[in-house]
Structure formats: structure tokens, C-alpha cells
Amino acid sequence: MIAKGVLVAALAVLSWGARAEVVNIDSKKLEQLIAKGVPLIDIRTEGEWNATGVVAGSKLLTFFDERGQANTSLWLERAKPIAGPENPVILICRSGNRSNAAAKFLSDHAGYKTVYNVSRGMNGWVGEGRKPVSADRSMAVCLLGRPC
Asked: What predicted TM-score, i.e. pTM, was given to this entire model?
């Protein structure tokens, strides 16, 4: 009985160690990672992309809809071609809160090794004088709730 408890505890420690930590980054680090080819997924809604623009080179894939609902399995299916679990990926939203939740999902439940969260999101990007570009439908991976 004790051996079984030790085995369970050891497996728990090993699985916890395999989980990646979400790395919060600022806009300067975002620019550096994009320049190195790390993909950026903007998880905001279509209305937000259109209202404020996006970071050039972003892939647009909504995580939470306007009601705050997420279809994590569908989102993951559409995100994997952008960056699979073995590849680094950056997530951005308006302020860093939703992208942090999505980053934790990738790290904790989808096996992603390196997940970056833009901690101040588009607010930080624009607030630091960086220019967004207009959202282009060619940037959209697939809008959730609509057929691809």
C-alpha cells in the first residue's frame, strides 16, 4: 500500500515537472520573438480586431467568444497547424488576461512546452506607440462559430 502511494506521488511530481510555465512578455520581447519567426495568435474577437487593428503577422483565432465561452477542443485543432506543442507560440488579447488563460490552457492541458503571453496585450502595444495594422481576413485562421 505504501509503495503504491509513493508511485502515485512520484508520477504526480514527474507530470507536474513536464508542464511548461507560461512566460509573460512585453511588447519589446514580442517584436524580438516575431523577428525570430515565433508565431503570434491574436485570440480576441473579430470586432476587436476590426476596432483596434492587430500586430502585423498575427494569426487571428478567437479563443473566447463575445459571451466569454470557449470551445477549447475546436480552438486547439485550429491552433495546432500554426504551432504544435513542441513549438513556441505567442498569444495576445486586449489586456493580457484572456491570453493568459488561453496560454495556461495550452501549457496545462495541451502539452505545449513554450507559451508566451503578451502581458499588457494590444493595450500595451498601442500604448507604447507601436502601430497596429488593419485586420485582414487572410490573417484569420478560422472564425469560431462560423464555417471555415
From this structure: 0.83
